Amino acid sequence: MRNLTWVALILLPFCLGSGAFAQASSAKDQCYTCHAGLGDQLQKPADVYVKDVHSRVGLTCASCHGGDATSDDPEKAMSKQAGFIGVPKRSAIPTLCGKCHGNAEYMKTYDPNVRTDQLEKYRGSVHARENVRGDGNIAQCVTCHGVHDILPVNNLDSRVYPTNVIKVCSACHSDANFIKAYNPGLPVDQLEKYRTSVHGKRILSGDSKAASCASCHSSHDIRAANDPKSSVYVISIPQTCARCHSDAQYMRGYRIPTDQYSKFVKSVHGKALLEKHDTGAPSCNRCHGNHGAVPPGVKSISNVCGTCHSLNADLFASSPHKKAFDERKIPECDVCHGNHEVEPPTDDMLGVSQAATCTNCHKPDDQSKGYAVAAQMWALVDTLKRMDDSAKKVIADAENKGMEVSDARFALNDVRQALIESRTMVHSFDLMKFKLPASRGLELAAGSVKTGEDAIKNYYFRRTGLGILTLIISILALGLYMKIRKIEKKR
Amino acid sequence: MAGTIKKIHDWFDIRYRLDALKQFMAEKSVPVHRGSMWYYFGGVSLFLFIIQVATGILLLMYYKGSEDAAFESVQFVVAKVRFGWLIRSVHSWSANLMILAVFIHMFSVFFTKAYRRPRELTWITGFFLLVFSLTFGFSGYLLPWNTLSFFATKVGTDIPGVLPLVGQYFLELLRAGQDVTGATLSRFFGLHVALLPGIFVVVLALHLLFVQRQGISEPESWVTLPDSQKKRMPFFPNFVLRDLLLWLIVLNILAILAVFFPWELGQKADPFASAPAGIKPEWYFLFAFQTLKFIPAKVFSIDGELLGVLAFAVVGVLWLLVPFWDRRTPTGRRNRLINYVGIVAVLYVIVMTILGYLL
What we know:
The complex is a heterodimer.
Chain A: H1 2-18, H2 20-28, H3 30-35, H4 40-49, H5 53-56, H6 62-65, H7 74-77, H8 93-101, H9 104-107, H10 118-123, H11 126-131, H12 141-145, H13 162-173, H14 176-179, H15 190-196, H16 198-204, H17 213-217, H18 237-245, H19 248-251, H20 260-266, H21 268-275, H22 284-288, H23 301-306, H24 310-317, H25 320-328, H26 332-337, H27 370-400, H28 406-425, H29 431-490
Chain B: H1 2-16, H2 18-27, E1 29-31, H3 40-60, H4 70-79, H5 84-111, H6 120-142, H7 147-158, H8 167-175, H9 182-214, E2 232-234, H10 235-260, H11 283-294, E3 298-299, E4 302-303, H12 304-320, H13 322-325, H14 336-358
C-alpha cells in the first residue's frame, strides 16, 4: 500500500502534465460527457476544456455554469433548481470568476502563493468602468484569458503569456472602429509602434523578459494614462520603467546600464517631475517614446530635446556646431548637458574655465575662433548677471528708503528676460546673434541702476531739503516768538 | 518807501473805508485764561484746510479720475513730477492732521461749552464742517485706486445699505451702481474736488462770519467775573501772530511727516481679487467700524448692523443739537452731565480706535 502511494505521487505530475488527470475528471462530469458527443458549437467547449487549467484541477462545467454535473439527464442537469445559469452575461463574468479567484481561502487549496486580488484590481480599471455599466464588449476576464481554454499565465501557449499578450490587447486596441466607441481620442497604432521598439523586437523574437503591454500598464488594474493611480501616469512612469531597467539582475545579458533612474531622479527633469510634480516635465517616454521605445540615436537627440526646447534646437540646427557634430558623430545636446542626469545649466558651463564644457573640444591653441567666442560669451553673460544683481540691490535699497521706483523694478523683468534670451542664444554659438539680447540687457540694467541711484540721491536730497526747510521755518518761528514777546512787553 | 505805502493805503481807504476795518481789528480781543490754548485749534484746522486746497489743486493738474488711469496718474505724480511726492504726501498727512485738529477743536468747544447761546449756529456749522471733513477723507481715500482704498470703500459703502427702505437706494447713489467700480471713482472724484469744496467753503465762511461777528466765546466762569478781572489780548497782532507761530510749527511737523513717512501708494486695485485680510478704514472711522463689529448679528431679532447705524445716527443728532437740549449752561448754571457725556465720548472714541487697531 505504501509502495502504491509512492508510485501515485511520482506519477501525479506526469498525469497533470499530460492532461490524463483532467480527462479523468472530465469523464466524471456528465456535462462534458454529453457535450463531447453533441457535435458543432455545443461540442467545441468540451473539445478545448480538456486543456483548460480549471479542468486540470478537477473543476467541472457546473463550477461556472451551475447545474448538476453528476446527472446524465439534461433536464435535471440544466434545471434552474440545480442552479444552472446557462451562458453567463458577459458583464457578470468578472464577478463570477471573482467568486473563486477573490476567495483567498479557497484559492490557497490549489496554490498557497496564488493571487486573489484580480477582481479588486479590475474594479478600479478603465475596463471595469464600462463593464459595470453593463457593456459586455469591454475587456473582462474571458476577453484576455479565454473562455474554456484558459491556461496558466506562465504557459507558453497562454493568451496572456508576455509574448502573446500583445495580440490579446491589440485585438481591441488596434481596432479603430471598436476603440472610437469608447475613446475616439485614443490612438490605435500602439502595436505598430511597439513592433518598431526594442521591447517589441525582443518579444517578437521570443524574449519573454522584454516589456510587453502588461509590463507597463499592469494586467488587471489598467487605468487611463491620465489617471494619477495609473502605472503609466506621467509621474509614475520613471518607477514603472525602473522596475526592470534598474534591476541589474534582471537586465543582465542586455548589456545596458541600470543607473538611468538613479541619475534621472537627481536631474532637473526628475526633480521637476518627481519632487515638484510638474506634469509638464519629461518622463522616460517623452524622450524614448512609449510604445515605440528606443534609445534616441546621435542624430535624433536634438530633435528629441527640441520637442520641448524648440528654440534651443532651432538655434543649434543653424549653428556651426551642427555640421561639425554630424561629421564627428557627436551626440548633440547630450555632449554638454548629459542625458539622464541633465542638471540645471549654469553659466560656468560656458566659457573657458575648467568647469566649462566648451573646453572639452576647444583649446587655447585652437585654430578656430571657438575658444575666443566661448570666453567672450561667458564674459558678457557674467557682466549682465552682475549688472542685474547690482540693479536689484540698488532698486531694493531705494524701495527700502521709501522711494517710488516701480518703473525701474518693472524694467528689471526685462533685464531678467534679456539674460534668459542671452543664455538661450548661446546655442547659436554665434557671437553677433548672442550680443543682441546681451547688449539690450546691459543697457536696461544700466538704466535701472541709474534710476535706483538717482532715487537714492533724491532720498538724501529730500532730507537735506527738509533740514533747510525746518531751519528756515524754525528761524521764522523764533523771529515771530521774539516779536510776540516784544509786543506783549510793550503792553 | 513809506510815502508809497501811504499812497497805496489811501487809494484803498478812499474806496473801501479801511479805517472801519482797522477800528474793528483794533477793538477785537481774545480772552486770556487757563483754557486759551484751545482757541488755537480752530485756526490750525483752517490752516490745514488751506494746505489741503493748495496741494489738492496741484495734484489735480496730474490726477486722472478713471479706473484705468487713476493709480497710474498718482504713481506718475509720486515718481516723475518734480516734488510730486512731497505734494501728495503733504496732502495725505495734512488731511489726517486736519481731521485730528477738527476733532480737538470740537471737543474743546464742547467742554468749554462755547456752543451755548448765542453761538448755537456756530456749533451747528462747525458740526457740518466736521461731517464734510470726514466725507472729504472718505472720498479722497478711494482716489488713488489702490487695493486698500478699494476694499475699504467697499466695506464703508456697504454700511448705509443696511438701512431699511432707503438703504439700497443710498448705497447705489454712493457707488453709482451695485458695486464699487470706475463709476464710483468718478463720483467720488467729483464729490471730492467740486461738490464738497463748494459746500465746505460756504459753510466755513458762515462759521468764520459767526465767530467774527460774535467774538470769541468767554469761559463760563467769566459770567460772574467783574470786567476789571477779565484779562484780554488784542486779536491783532497778538493772537494773529501766536496763531501764525503755531501754524509754522504745524508746517514743520507736516514737512517732517511727509519726508520721513511718505504716504504709501500700495498696489493697484483689482476688483476681481479677493479682499486682503484685515481691511480697516482710516483711523477716524475706526471707532465706528469697531463698534459695528462688536454688535451681535441680531439684537432682539433686529439686524445688529442696522441697530448700530441707527444708534450712531441718533447720537449724531443729539450731538448736533446739544446747544438746544443743554438747558442749564445758557442760564449760567453748571451742567456736569455735559462734561460726563463729553468724557465718555472721548474715552469711547479712543478705546474703540485702539481696539480697532489691535483686534
